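Researcher: Structure for this, please.
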Amino acid sequence: MVAAPHGDRMAYVHSGEIRLPIRFRRMLRLACLFMAAITTFACGYHFQQQARLPGDAKRLYVDIFENRTNQAGLETTVTNAVVFEFVKRGETDMVKEPSQADLIMKGVIRSVQISTAATRSNSGAGERQVSITLDVRLVQQDGNVVWSANGLSDNDAYVVGADKFLNDDKQRATLGLVSTRIAERIYNRFTDNF
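Model: Predicted structure, token format:
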């Protein structure tokens, strides 16, 4: 073991690695933790709250979203994303039948837009933008609307190549990703509004 100068303190070289004194290492760890805490709270970060349904409602049924687009199967993708988000993050009891629910979530997928975002020279490759817009509402058993959010939308892009089948797979995956982000937004509206 050889002592090597390290600023005004001594560092110890052991087996080819430099080891700082224990006191210095502890101070360095504390400084890193302090900086992480300052950065976290200075950015306004906060932990997500549990979703609370309005009134005394405890059980929620998510109805299959109505699909007013030409994208077959999108209603299943969006509905599954919403159910998954509530199951994953909430204490809301999800039920399988509307008759068992205190509230029923209904939604309408109003539009899907797929447009060229960028093109590349002669190869035909480029980028396509996918955008979904939908409305969602919570309805009591008697049909009374207790909450709604209209015009929720999100978008993302994917790279287009020469293979049509691969492009179709990328488009479906991007629609799934956008559906997931809209489901997160719906959940976040619950935690913000109630």
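Researcher: Any notable elements?
Model: Strands lie at 2-6, 9-14, 17-19, 59-62, 66-67, 93-94, 103-119, 126-140, 145-160. Residues 164-193 form the longest helix (30 residues).
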